[in-house]
Amino acid sequence: MKNDNFYMLAKTMYGLEEILADELKNLGAQNIKIQNRAVSFKGDTGFMYKANLNLRTCLRVLKPIATFQAHNEKELYNKVLAINWEKHLDLDSTFATHATTHSQVFTHSKYASLLVKDGIADFFKNKYSKRPNVDPKDPDITINLHINKHTCTVSLDSSGESLHKRGYKSDTIIAPMNEVLAAGLILLSGWNEIDDFHDPMCGSGTILIEAALIAYNIPVNIFRERFGFEGWKDFDLDLFEKIKDVSLDKEKDYKGKITGGDNFQKAIRITRKNIENALMFDNIKVKNEDFFETQINKNTFVVFNPPYGERIELGINEFYEKTGDSLKNNYKDCTVWIISSDIENLKMIGLKPSRKIELMNGKLKCSFREFKIYEGSKKKKYK
Length: 383
Ligand SMILES: C[S@@+](CC[C@H](N)C(=O)[O-])C[C@H]1O[C@@H](n2cnc3c(N)ncnc32)[C@H](O)[C@@H]1O
Description:
The structure is a single chain. The chain is an alpha/beta fold. It has 2 domains: 6-157, VC0802-like, CATH 3.30.2130.30; 179-218 and 228-372, Vaccinia Virus protein VP39 (Rossmann fold, 3-Layer(aba) Sandwich). It has helices at residues 17-27, 45-54, 73-81, 109-128, 179-189, 206-215, 237-248, 265-277, 316-330, 343-346, and strands at 6-11, 30-35, 38-43, 60-69, 94-102, 133-134, 141-148, 151-157, 197-199, 258-262, 284-288, 301-304, 335-340, 355-361, 364-372. An 8-stranded mixed β-sheet has the order 2-3-1-4-8-7-5-6. A 7-stranded mixed β-sheet has the order 11-10-9-12-13-15-14, with helices on one face. A hairpin with a 2-residue loop joins strand 14 (355-361) and strand 15. Helix 5 crosses helix 6. The radius of gyration is 23 Å and the shape is elongated. The protein starts with 5 loop residues before the first strand and ends in an 11-residue tail after the last strand. The site of S-adenosylmethionine has 23 residues, from helix 6 and strand 10.
């Protein structure tokens, strides 16, 4: 039954679990429980569509279909073979399998994923002497296996491609920020969605576009061409269209200004294209300008990630020191949040952070720090 609630798992990045749980609560999820890099919850099929469309800090939404214990490869294969795959796939469906393992027995995720593939293929072969095809690139159904010690969870991946692929980015500069992280930064920062917002080193524009989608309350994945659930046997297009309409009706007004800058002309060109793709051309303004030579209006809310050393003419040390000076002189009465993996260099800013949050940007451990800029707030090196 479509309107029956079932258990799901929303995966996210380290440090964004609570924000994701808040998002789920605001959307109306039930039985929300925070886990490591994930949040579990309950909802019905419509809610699963809504979650994929609206969650800003979620990488993928999984729908578990079987949980069992397996102590060796044979047992894993047999238990996958015992699942009634006809409920989920037809002979002419295509599928892909993925696995993540935290186990001393199953040490190779690729091999575990192959066992799942074999189990599914043999289920059909035993019954029909034929099997559905594997399509790793554009499958109808993506099956996910998660192994924790001996506990195996087989899930349908309702998202398909990771949800950070919003569909608005046609090009990037080097080191673009992951969209899920960018949205997470803005939600963690406590921006009131009233004050003006600025990213002075906008790169390919991720933080600006995510900020605008938040400020106007646009369903963040509305530009995606496809979600995993669209290839499922029970996909309900009418219900999905209804969920889209209802989500789009929640758009709200924002009277502030969203602006960005970058001293790299190509970055500005790319950002403009991405802004256009996100239908935000009238709502976000960007300029080719040097952070060290620009002044910003008082009370602007600022979020940015400085470069990691590429294309900086100054030494990285001096870059951060000069950043602190510019903030003090040109960002008066602004709240400024900076994320960087250069944790030692962040101290060179010489401003006392009012908040620090530990996050991961891919494999890099980062610190996300808030600086409230007042007259005379620059002191000597702070930790
Ligand atoms: C790590 S990237 C930002 C990535 C961005 N958040 C994104 O999602 O694509 C840092 C950016 O800072 C810019 N940058 C470096 N020095 C700058 C300066 N003095 N003024 C303005 N932008 C600068 C670089 O050109 C680069 O685009």
